């Protein structure tokens, strides 16, 4: 079990990971029918699958990234992973039932989505983060879930040349039917789906100090959802400390 190295002011555990010296591990490709069930789930609740970006070289788990194009009803791209849920995560005691997860990210309709476009890191970074985060819990024998934040390095650097956003938080998507949020694979295994939502430095610090709920309250106030907006409002730039009853 990976133990936290520290705790934030809000009481959330903080984990720090260092690169492991290990060799390549043969990837897990999932059980027969596992991928297809996830695909049907997304087609049922989000939209028709347009394309899949297959991983050529995999380590530990084979991560593919699927693409659903914008529609009139959902005017944004949806990218999602399969592969993170091939293995259970190493969840702490008391958090049973959160062992399996997959990730998604929503991009504005003008975002270029193609192999050619992904040659530019400014276009590719969402895919990089999907794959990196999907593999992280298996690489470090840990877990990822609701409210977990990950900075882009230490110190944190912008996610691309076109934004000051420099980290991410995992949150359940809000622009979906509630039944989308989980997928029961069998009587003992349920996949939970999380959106990657980019954060500014001040928002990351606010979350660590006051907790995830206070940050998402601010998101609700300013209409922040799971669609990535590179230059969106920083909800904590001039933040007011939340009132707390004694």
UniProtKB/TrEMBL annotation:
InterPro entries in alphabetical order: SUFU-like_domain
Domain of life: Bacteria
Suppressor of fused-like domain mapped to chain residues: 61-233
Protein name: Suppressor of fused domain protein
Natural source organism: Paenibacillus ehimensis
